[in-house]
Amino acid sequence: MTKTKRIGILTAGGDSPGLNAAIRGVGKTALGFYGMEIIGFRDGFRGLVTDRRLRLDRNVLAGILTVGGTILGTSRDKPHRMKIDGRSRDMTGVIVKNYAKYGLDALVCLGGGGTQKNALRLSEAGLNIISIPKTIDNDVAMTDSSIGFATALDIATETIDRLHSTAHSHHRIVVAEIMGHRAGWLALGAGIAGGADVILIPEIPYHVDKIVEAIRRRSRHGTNFSIVAVAEGAMGVEDARAFAAAENRKEKARNPHERNEAKLELAALDARHAGNTLRLAKTLEELTHLESRVTILGYVQRGGTPSPADRLLATRFGSACADLIHENVFGVMVASRGNGTEPVPLVKVAGKRKTVPPNHSWVETARRVGTCLGD
Ligand code: F6P
What we know:
Elements: E1 6-11, H1 19-33, E2 37-41, H2 46-50, E3 53-55, H3 58-61, E4 82-84, E5 87-89, H4 92-101, E6 106-111, H5 113-124, E7 129-133, H6 149-170, E8 173-178, H7 185-194, E9 198-200, H8 208-220, E10 226-231, H9 237-252, H10 256-273, H11 276-288, E11 292-296, H12 308-326, E12 332-337, E13 340-345, H13 346-349, H14 361-368
Parallel strand pairs: 1-2, 1-6, 6-7, 7-12, 8-10, 8-11, 9-10
Antiparallel strand pairs: 2-3, 4-5, 12-13
The site of 6-O-phosphono-beta-D-fructofuranose has 10 residues, from loops.
């Protein structure tokens, strides 16, 4: 008789709408279709270290499709650098031991870019790992889309729609800060869908005078308001140059000391960047003489019920993931490609980021309809 497969599942990184739909997709296919067992680990990789488990049976999986967040909880803990009693420790060995202790045949890791790296580390440590991409930033490499992006796009677009009323009625500039530290998919998508007049993304460093020029042009044509959709990681050309130089130093570092120095420099630049949206709004007010206001969308973008598009994507990912486990395909991420899904080796995903190519069709579209991108 063949042994019943037992699979573990965890969610790591920031929460995203659709995580529960994916847990359900894996669980229902694994339990109902293949007759496997499934155990959830709480709070990301930490649950595997601290023995915090939850048996995912039919009752637990029922009714979670439409629920936001993750029933398993999440954390940004890394297996190889986990804070234990205030000290950073490598817990990879403990995870490997516990995987065997719980009799797991596979471990499913749901997460963004950081989780893909951690998934690869555990795969290289000998575990049967399979991952599913989720992030509202949509920047996981090698997949068309990730769980959470569609919902966040809906929320950010609706917010821009609503901001139009105040901007228009008060003849103001409204600067809407949208999530996305290193990738501008969300700001660009919501900016186009919501008809923002200016869209600023990390991939296209901006010149303030170009933004001012665009706003003044609108005023000359009798439109005394503007909506600026700015990704939280968007920056002016000078700052972008400083970041690129520090990134380059980190990349080319010849020893741990040089690498650490570059990392410290990047952290300092990040700290300096905080509050950039508020500074930008103030500068635009001074230079255009139009009143400006800031709206920071923040965690609202990650919260609440997943959209139908995310429920569908998450269920497809989850079910395809259980199929791959059945076929003993490991060391891969389930990626979406067109209408289908396909396994992509984790080595091709980990450490890469899918940013907006400057000549992407969305960028070209925005330009065609007269949106200022700050360059
Ligand atoms: O990864 C998604 C994301 O929402 C980013 O856009 C954002 O910068 C980041 O997470 C912040 O998340 P947290 O504060 O939970 O670490």
